[in-house]
Design brief:
Chain A: Its cofactor is [2Fe-2S] cluster; [3Fe-4S] cluster. Chain A: This is Fumarate reductase. Chain A: GO terms for molecular function: 2 iron, 2 sulfur cluster binding; electron transfer activity. The complex is a heterodimer of chains A (256) and B (659). Chain A has 256 residues and is an alpha+beta fold. Chain A folds into 2 domains: 111 residues, Beta-grasp domain (Ubiquitin-like (UB roll), Roll), CATH 3.10.20; 128 residues, Fumarate Reductase Iron-sulfur Protein, Chain B, domain 2 (Orthogonal Bundle). Chain A has 8 helices and 7 strands. In chain A, helix 5 packs across helix 8. The longest helix of chain A is centred in the last third of the chain and has 15 residues. Chain A starts with 5 loop residues before the first strand and ends in a 6-residue tail after the last helix. In chain B, the strands form 5 sheets. Chain B has a 5-stranded parallel sheet with strand order 5-2-1-9-17, sandwiched between helices. Chain B has a 5-stranded antiparallel sheet with strand order 11-15-14-12-13. In chain B, strands 16-10-18-19 form a 4-stranded antiparallel sheet. Chain B has 2 domains: 447 residues, FAD/NAD(P)-binding domain (3-Layer(bba) Sandwich), CATH 3.50.50.60; 156 residues, Succinate dehydrogenase/fumarate reductase flavoprotein, catalytic domain (Flavocytochrome C3, Chain A, domain 1). By secondary structure, chain B is α+β, with helices and mostly antiparallel strands. Chain B starts with 15 loop residues before the first helix and ends in a 14-residue tail after the last strand. Classes of the chains: A alpha+beta (256), B alpha+beta (659). Chains A and B meet through helix 1, helix 2 and helix 3 of A and helix 3, helix 5, helix 6, helix 12 and helix 13 of B.
Chain lengths: 256, 659
Amino acid sequence: MSTGNMNLTLKVWRQKNNKAKGNLVDYKMSEISPDMSFLEMFDVLNEQLINKGEEPIVFDHDCREGICGACSMYINGRPHGPKEGITTCQLHMRSFQDGDTIVVEPWRAKAFPVIKDLAVDRTAFDRIIAAGGFISVNTGNAQDANALPIPKFQADSAFEAAACIGCGACVATCKNASAMLFTSAKISQLAQLPQGQPERYRRVQSMVAQMDAEGFGNCTNTGACEAECPKGISLENIARMNRDFYSAKFVSEEEV
Amino acid sequence: MADMNANIPEGELTGKWTKLRSSMPLVNPANKRSIEIIIVGSGLAGASAASTLAEMGYKVKCFCFQDSPRRAHSIAAQGGINAAKNYQNDGDSVYRLFYDTIKGGDYRAREANVHRLAEVSANIIDQCVAQGVPLAREYGGLLDNRSFGGTQVQRTFYAAGQTGQQLLLGAYSALERQIGMGKVEMFTRHEMLDVVVIEGKARGIIARNLITGELERHFGHAVLLGTGGYGNVFYLSTNAMGSNVTAAWKAHKKGAYFGNPCFTQIHPTCIPVSGDHQSKLTLMSESLRNDGRIWVPKKKDDQRKATDIPEEERDYYLERRYPAFGNLVPRDVASRAAKERCDAGYGVGQSKLAVYLDFTANTERYGRIEATKHNIHNPDRETCMRLGRDVIKEKYGNLFDMYKQITGEDPYELPMRIYPAVHYTMGGLWVDYNLMTTVPGLYALGEANFSDHGANRLGASALMQGLADGYFVIPYTIGAYLSKELATKPIPLDHPAFVEAEASVRGILEHFLSVKGTKSVDFFHKRLGKIMWEKCGMARNAEGLTSAIAEIQALRKEFWQDVRVPGEMNEFNPELEKAGRVADFIELGELMCMDALQRNESCGGHFREEYQTEEGEALRDDENYAFVSAWEYKDDVKFELHKEQLKFENIKIAQRSYK
């Protein structure tokens, strides 16, 4: 099936379910093509396991073009592998050398429990958004879109924050398993837009409270999250969130 | 036979929707609270419907197979969303969007539905901006537009190359807001495996919890499917790995007719296949065609590097064949033209199955404009290219990066190599004007229905349709049905229909696990994909389709007898999920070939080689085939064709020309 000439050793985390104890299992791979994506290499491995009568490795993936945020492998100690600015599904085998040993683990964080093998439960992120990551505008309430001019630099900056794909790499790489980059990206997107102003301080308080309740750690400004984020979400968003959070505590008249 | 009345309101085209909206039966707020609606799918159509219906007061349950509703495949749409805003003052109007869409669909869509779509298009942009969706803006702070295929106005709104992502995150945040308020109950990692029909009406679903493997019964006064398209029947497509037809297919088997299954969109600009290991194809947004020029060498089998081939030895074949629309012809036309050049031996790259998409000319043009802005007079070419590259980067940076990741080539230096790939399916569950299928109480929204795009969808119209259906159509039209259901009490889950449906689902899953055959699910899926691509893809003929049907029937038999599905039922088992989906794709594939075989004409994406003009364009037969084919499922994978005649009262039906 594959046509390449790379030989690799994989050490992959196998865990039957969220109660079982997991361990790393070795797999030898041969004839891997450098043009394959990392997940296609896993497809080949799974096909081999099925043919041998063994259980294939479970991993999350869907769009395979770096936008859905489903894929989540911790490769050689880095979320989404050795390259910057991409997700696991965009990683190609040409980024590795023939003969390499590659260690693949799931995201590790208390708030992201392992479901099976490399798949983890990231629903905590949804609950953070549900706590306030929106503008309360029912369908039909909107005015004409151009009635509200927004300076281009402001719209662009909001867009950069909105580019977050919710993959959780920031949490996985953080020594504190903090979700502050994720949470702040949504807060920052909406705080920079005029539409987001009415709920600005209410939003930051609700979302931070939910983030804490989910068991994520705090930020100690290491910056690993920004370095490993496949979408280049900036640490500035955390600064903006913190500023709004303090403003909300000291200035806002609204209690949440 | 089920009721196949399209229920198009009487009266003038332009007044149909307004009048219907004002006269549609309503459900009062107190009654809404006791009505339960099931929504399957959380993409643009599903999420927008779920949030809007919950805002109105209905009790909503929403299901998705992904781990979060935010990951539905709408997220991957790149280029943009159309709306008849006429912000560019270039002559756009509701009528023009309506006209372009009907013509783009090669006169195989319903006039009334398409007009409604054009009417609500402007509201969608307003709603999304109000939600905080960061669409691209000009320096004056107002919204920007770009060009898309099949139209001569600029009406496409966008957010870099991530328009689908930003629109979906808007709908997702509206949905999460309702979840947080307890008005929507969300079921992630759940897959719908059957519709429960009681006394002829859709009353619920059977869903499998994908983590525990348990089967669950859920009641609803109505069931809405926003479950997307079925492009993955071809195995290789631009769809996500999990995109599937299962929900729609189960509905079909429970009585919902399937409309125009053979109408498939092959997108002209995708990254070419690189090898057998390939699991999916990646699209390069249509917006690139606006700023790029497509060409192949004039000489056959030209081995030179693209940049070494001089201007006069390049064949800009789209500009040559279609001077009026040039590189912006609709997708079906552009795809066939690329296939024609490659088949004739002018293809490029190793496989020779690719053409060039070149940005040099526009990069230089943008650079010249930038130079003027920076007060650089008479800039040299190098300066123009440098400045122009920054503009291109801002517009398409993420797409260029994506291309480089996949191919290992830098598109800022070399033209992109592209080739057509399966992208979208215009066909889907047949629905009436109210989006209801032939099963009362069962609705289909977005790509899952067949309704608005005819035989070919124009770019940036899928996002428009998904959100139109969810935000602005279903919230009104569902009232007509639900206002008559006020007396219906929730049906107990031990009702025989629920018990039977669950037992039948369990039987199928247990069968897959018990076969213990010799071939993996993917093995069968790839074989199906190959048959479909070769015989029911960009070009089709009667002979090929006839043999495809026989091959697929044989494949189906082999699949059920020889598939190997590891693991168990009551655990997280992606192979078992795939087995169910591929089983449905195999049945659908056969129906698609049957549909393509009965349609003895070429129209839009459906190109029958026997029916073409002398110039190789699609040759329609309006006298005999101006109908929607609506297939009814009969026992044991048999199908019966019904026809909905299309009436064109406002548009003069003509040979489609983009010359």
